[in-house]
Amino acid sequence: MIPRQNVRNIGISAHIDAGKTTISERILFYTGKIHKIHEVKEGDGEGATMDYMDLEREKGITITSAAITCFWRDTQINLIDTPGHVDFTIEVERSLRVLDGAIMVLDGVAGVQSQSYTVDRQMKRYRVPRIAFINKLDRIGANSFRVVEAMQEKLGLNTIVLQYPIGSENGFEGVIDLIEMRANYYEGENGEHRVSRAIPEHLKAEAQAAREKLLDRISILSEEMTGKLLAEEEVPKQLIWDTIRQGTLSLEFTPVLMGSAIKNKGIQDLLDAIALYLPSPMEREAIAATDVSTNEQVKVYPEADAPVVALAFKLIEDEFGQLTYIRLYSGTLKQGDRLYNSRTRKQVRVSRLVRIEVDKRQELESATVGEIVGLIGIDCASGDTLCSPGTNLSLEGIFVPEPVITIAITPKSQEDVDRLSKALHRFAKEDPTLRVSSDPESNKTLLSGMGELHLEIYLERMKREYRAEVYVGAPAVAYRETITKVAKFDYTLKKQTGGAGQYAHVIGRLEPCQEPFLFENRVVGGAIPTQFIPACEQGFRDALRTGWLKGYPIVNVKVILEGGSFHPIDSSEMAFRFAAREGFEQGFAKAKPTILEPMMLLEVETPSEFVGKIQGKLLARRALLLGSETRDHYAVLRAEVPMAEMFGYSTELRSLSQGMATFSMEFAEYRPLPENLIDEIR
């Protein structure tokens, strides 16, 4: 068995089309996991190994994250390939939540793109040490130096460049290793033979300067290295590797490697760097958990003989029932063990334990700390903590972004009703960003998600996997309502119907705030008895579901309950819950309510000659232009634009640019809708 310190749980993340899946395919090939390289969009219908769904192979994009285990020399690499498209951002979010290290891929031409910012935020949120890989250096316009500069300026990363490119664009041949000071070339049909030679004469001076810069940057972490540099002594390779590792694990450095995955150059060096610089499960900092019974913070350490603490981070339904991906943060799990779900407060039995190999399963007798494995047939939800009975801990969940688009669907026939119900139950359980609700007025089912592509994929899966046919209504934007000023409420519920009546009186005020909802109890002197306060809070939460202007959910409101009165016989929890809801609506109407609309961060990449037309059309869509930059006859435009204005944009962009421009879009924030447009929305 591979020692724990030689295990790497890593993910590959990047902007869409930066080459993540192509890199994954090379990693699997060079580690001997597969014996033939398949490309993402391949004519033979095979497609890349990690894109195992038919839909992924047809569309040439990654939709769901896939896990696989491979071995590079004496290191076990558990690899997760994640989607780049922002509509499937939950896949990246939950993968980074459980991984120990990551590879951030950047396009050698485009550099830092809109989704690169999202990936960077996610890695920082979960404190994941990373390596950056600049890909596509064989393409026209590729420039690794410019990409490194952009990483420093735009993402604020402390980059340390470990390689120097040999040639560029069509003339890109290999890389110079600045630690070993050798030139690496990749020969053979698939670049499988890495050949190390002397540095070409014309690049010696530049490589030496780059090495000195590298040593200077990392020496801040090593007194020994500083001493050797001052004494002008040779710095041992092992000292350089150890210092870079130390800085990467402490998140001080981001080591940068480079290559071209499609041309099979630089991937073996990347595998070396994964083993050298990314952490094993034993080296990640202890993670925080909450003891559910005492509400105290507890540290969970990666120890094999401690009680089991695991996070269920992804669910899939297959022919054997629910497959739950879990990450073990401590303890050793065996088949037949019992686990306690700290959310449902129920025990489950582990009847089958498997290693997940993309879409295949390998039976396991046991799994230990640091492993990512699958449990078959247990009932739980994404984000649940599973632990040894008696441990009762809850790990921090997974950040789930709010959906921004909604469609109404109705089954085409009676047979489709049951099929649709099964499909929606499964999909909503698998994907926390997909929300299912019903419209009480039209009786239609509402499906909310992260974008048009997100919903389109699920509609297609309904048809293929469940044979459920539906009529689809026009997409609607997920607006929100909020208040813009402070307002008071004073509401009394008083009903006498013969016998016991209903009485509740609440006084307080509403204030705008940054959080979705805050409640503060300032009742003194027992004006409202303590046992009725939770009912008041629940009443205020009830009122958030439907707004006063157009019926959209209410956000960014703080409710301060200041006083009221009660009746010793007629007051009840139900009475105070109802009064609180009515009081909220009374205050909301006076607090100058407004509509918030989702704003999207848009990035358009286009040949320079179409910039004027594209900008003009964006302004017509209420876009706020944030800036542009030009790279070798290509321009990148950045803008903030309302989600409501972006339906059908891909068709318009194609016609404006003769099909040559591309765009990507991600949610930025909610912002007030201009008053003149409020009446236009339904």
What does this structure look like?
Helices cover 27% and strands 33% of the residues. It is globular, with a radius of gyration of 28 Å. The protein is built from 16 helices and 38 strands. With 682 residues, the protein is an alpha+beta fold. The model has no long low-confidence stretch (mean pLDDT 85). Helix 12 packs across helix 13. The chain has an 8-stranded antiparallel beta sheet with strand order 18-17-23-14-15-22-19-20. The longest helix has 18 residues.
Radius of gyration, whole Å: 28 Å
H/I helix tally: 16
Mean pLDDT: 85
Quick one: how many beta strands?
A: 38
**Main sheet characteristics:** 8 strands, antiparallel
3D shape? globular
**Low-confidence spans: pLDDT under 50, at least 5 residues?**
none
Question: Percent of residues in beta strands?
Answer: 25-35%
Q: Percent helix among the residues?
A: 25-40%
Strand order of the largest sheet: 18-17-23-14-15-22-19-20
Structural class designation: alpha+beta
Tell me the span between the first and last alpha carbons. 62 Å
Provide keyphrases for this structure.
682 residues; 16 helices; seven-stranded mixed β-sheet; eight-stranded antiparallel β-sheet; alpha+beta
Outline:
Helix content is 27%, strand content 33%. By secondary structure, the protein is α+β, with helices and mostly antiparallel strands. The longest helix has 18 residues, at 573-590.
Question: What does the secondary structure layout of this molecule look like, with pairings?
Answer:
Layout: E1 7-14, H1 20-30, H2 54-59, E2 66-72, E3 75-81, H3 89-98, E4 101-107, H4 114-125, E5 130-135, H5 144-155, E6 159-161, E7 163-166, E8 174-177, E9 182-187, E10 193-197, H6 204-218, H7 223-230, H8 237-249, E11 254-258, H9 267-277, E12 287-291, E13 297-300, E14 309-318, E15 321-330, E16 332-334, E17 338-341, E18 346-349, E19 352-357, E20 360-363, E21 366-368, E22 372-376, E23 385-387, E24 393-395, E25 405-411, H10 414-430, E26 435-438, E27 445-449, H11 452-466, E28 470-472, E29 476-477, E30 480-483, E31 487-495, E32 502-512, E33 517-521, H12 533-544, E34 557-565, H13 573-590, E35 593-607, H14 611-620, E36 624-631, E37 634-642, H15 649-656, E38 662-672, H16 675-678
Parallel strand pairs: 1-3, 1-4, 4-5, 5-11, 6-11, 33-34
Antiparallel strand pairs: 2-3, 7-8, 8-9, 9-10, 12-13, 12-24, 14-15, 14-23, 15-22, 16-21, 17-18, 17-23, 19-20, 19-22, 25-27, 25-28, 25-29, 26-27, 30-35, 31-32, 32-34, 35-37, 35-38, 36-37
